[in-house]
Amino acid sequence: TNRTFTMIKPDAVEAGNIGNILKMITDGGFKIVAMKLTHLSETDAKKFYAVHAARPFYGELVEFMSRGPIVAAILEKENAVEDFRALIGATNPAEAAEGTIRKAYAKSIGENAVHGSDSDENAAIEAAFHFAGREIF
Ligand code: GTP
Ligand code: MG
């Protein structure tokens, strides 16, 4: 058993898809061990996505991720990081497989509904960015 970190991004919260996405997550065998409705300030979004700072879409990404509330959560499952990346689908929803969260709810390569950590190491860093120990069960 291990853990990954996810965010339901502002586009999906705005569209009223929190419940639909949480259902896909729990139906996919993930247990929610931490969760909150929260918000990334511009400074937070810059820090969270610092790894993408050199990319041409960085400014757009920071503006998008800070424009409204998000749901942050920690998910538990065997092989959590890899299995969750499979459940969310390709970054670009046009390339996302049938049955994935992004196929169902993402609007574009930028506004793509959900985040999933890309390694165990980053999952731990991202979880600690959002949650205090007492909020994790
Ligand atoms: P995350 O789970 O959110 O990290 O997505 P990912 O791992 O599938 O993609 P990546 O880490 O490469 O990019 C992070 C985020 O930047 C994406 O999820 C998009 O929201 C955004 N992004 C990536 N490529 C583009 C792009 O070409 N244009 C725009 N506007 N945003 C992009
Ligand atoms: Mg990524």
Automatic annotation (TrEMBL):
Requisite cofactors: Mg(2+)
Domain Nucleoside diphosphate kinase-like: 1-137
Source superkingdom: Bacteria
Gene Ontology cellular-component terms listed: cytoplasm
Record-level Gene Ontology MF annotations: ATP binding; metal ion binding; nucleoside diphosphate kinase activity
EC code: 2.7.4.6
Keyword Methyltransferase: no
Residue positions binding ATP: 9, 57, 85, 91, 102, 112
Catalytic site positions: 115
Record-linked InterPro entries: NDK-like_dom (IPR034907), NDK-like_dom_sf (IPR036850), Nucleoside_diP_kinase (IPR001564)
UniProt subcellular location: Cytoplasm
UniProt keyword terms in alphabetical order: ATP-binding, Cytoplasm, Kinase, Magnesium, Metal-binding, Nucleotide metabolism, Nucleotide-binding, Phosphoprotein, Transferase
Function: Major role in the synthesis of nucleoside triphosphates other than ATP. The ATP gamma phosphate is transferred to the NDP beta phosphate via a ping-pong mechanism, using a phosphorylated active-site intermediate.
Protein name: Nucleoside diphosphate kinase
